[in-house]
User: What shape does this take?
Amino acid sequence: MSVVKDPSSPMYVPEKNREIARERARQHTEMISDYLVVRDKIPTGFNQWDRIQKQKNHILKILGGAEKDWDNYKWHYQNAIRDTGILRRIIRLSDQDIRDIEKTATQYRWQISPYYASLIDPEDRDCPIFKQSVPTVAEYLDKEEMKDPYALVYNSPAPLITRLYPDRLIINVTNMCAMFCRHCLRKKDISFKDMIYPREDIESSLKYVSDCPEIRDVLITGGDALMLSDDTIDWILTELERIPHVEIKRLGSRMLATLPQRVTPGLCKIFKRHKPLYLNTQFNHPLEVNPESEKVIDRLIDAGVLVGNQSVLLKGINNDKNVTKKLIHELLRIRVRPYYIFNCKKLQGIHHFRASVGEGLNIMENLRGYTSGLGVPTFIITAPEGKGKTPMAPTYLLNQNRNGKLLFRPWAGQVCEYEDEDL
Ligand SMILES: *Cc1c(COP(=O)(O)O)cnc(C)c1O
Assistant: This one.
């Protein structure tokens, strides 16, 4: 019998009593009404896919590529866009824009993969993809003093290693990337030459890991870990697995957003042999999430790789609660788990991208409770001198009394009291 008519059912609620819940449901819907208005107007890689495909064909023509070249990441490496003459045939740029790009390029290199270029709205100078990839004079004019952003002196106990924590560390295997993000923290490093670091240095870093029985989690990053060849990735993962105390391996790569073609079936076949393997990537805007990204994430998941996202809070790109929420929803749909949102550091050349910590907290305030907990990342500021990632969260705990009472504020307001145990 239907629960509607069966008072003995645990789910039975008399129909007339449902009005209370219905009223609350209306209030809940009202709480996201601003999002519901803009939800379908925010551009995403899915809803702009036709435009992106058109640009793809246009770019292939300009670069003299064939349809099959587009799926070949090496073709994208070879045809990386670094030339204003080519860029201006892909997107609309004024003569002043060209002069600005060239002036900025004297200080910071730029490089855009043809794939990422296809995501740019060619007519829109405010396009968040444009802002992340095309140099602007704001970078050149930013004279913010540069300090050592990751304080190698304090944090690099062995070649290529960055260690900030007790049980995990980073091996920096390269400074190379498929695209040079304009907001890159390591702008300074990419201004020099492209390097995959020598095998002997990687061996020294592996030796360090092997000598530290407390290290159970090793992150391979750079630069971009997927700039390494399949063979080198396979070798490093194999070597790490020979160290008995290494329990998990992680890769850091932005390529799911900037060159998803890199995630080939061949690479995934290698990944499949290296469980447990985590990959953290960086999507910053819903326009970066499209059917191509979905396809390679399906491939990664089939290979048993767990994919997380670390985005950067960027002014004019995603410092908006609705854009961030949309990004999170798009990521969950393609099975990428939002992990971190980083506040943008104060470094030379990226000042114009900085949003305040307060803005970040506001965005966080509008996620918890308002959307799936699965999609709520941790907002992080990175402490100076390598003192570590530090979570910043809205304050929910209001008062912690000694007599076993807590005062707190749930997501939707209305202060509550909670009976706690004594310490
Ligand atoms: C970010 C980072 C890690 C990983 O930190 P989690 O919070 O565990 O993701 C480890 N080592 C270094 C040096 C890092 O910068």
About this structure: The chain has a mean pLDDT of 95. The longest strand covers residues 306-313. The radius of gyration is 24 Å.
